[in-house]
Amino acid sequence: MIEKIDIAKIVEEVKLLAKDTGSFILEQKQSFSEESVESKSAHNYVSYVDKQSEQIIVNRLKQILPEAGFVTEEKMVEQDTANHDYCWIVDPLDGTTNFIKDVPLYCVCIALKHNNDIILGVVYELIRKELFWAYQGGGAWIDNTPIHVSENVLDNSLVALGYPYNAKEYTLFAQRITDKLYGNVASIRSLGSAEGELCYVAAGRFDVYLESFLKPWDVAAGAIILKEAGGKISDYNNEDNLWQSGREVLATNGVVHEQMIEIIKTIK
Known about the structure:
The protein is an alpha+beta fold. The protein folds into 2 domains: about 5-145, Fructose-1,6-Bisphosphatase, Chain A, domain 1 (2-Layer Sandwich); about 155-265, D-Maltodextrin-Binding Protein, domain 2. It has 7 helices and 14 strands. The strands form 3 sheets. It has a 7-stranded mixed sheet with strand order 3-4-5-6-7-8-9, with helices on both faces. A 5-stranded mixed sheet has the order 11-10-12-14-13, sandwiched between helices. A hairpin with a 2-residue loop joins strand 1 (about 40) and strand 2.
């Protein structure tokens, strides 16, 4: 039986790891060339920076919590969750296209899951050098400053809409949700990093974020940060069935969550 872990100690180690990995990524950015970019699928890119960053993270996480399994975007380690109570969920560079094009924002993202619960999340946003972090019951933070979601109603909400690579399946929904919200909210943005946008909802910068066809590593770290900041995350039916997989993700300040669910119901 695995002894109870010291979550506060582990989060400090993960915060340092995220910053170290971020420093590596920014160093590589100075000599980075688009010629080194590969395509995983249509418009879905990866580079040696993603892969090497993931390897750095995996090697350190094995030392921090040797008994944990892994789910990682670039598959630089065996993907094994069935035999582990604890599992690291890693996106070494969320917002790869932004990184390639030199556009903010992009992030290092690390989460820890215990059975079915995400218990720790760290997101390091490289351009502003902001470290978002949280662990279960410990509140949500940027560096040493506590953060909380906004209290804005929908009319005053800044909404982040994500546009996944699954264009054929998502275009009609994207058009309809834009039509519903445009002119009825403060404004609409799309920043190209799911984890970063979740953290921005947690910090009260955005009030709503939604997207589909993501993966667990796109949402896990940001989700617990959002929850600890007082926000709410669900799938488009206001349930937990799909959001942890990334299939459907609606994240809000909580105030507008039910209203967003009703809007989504009218266009699905």
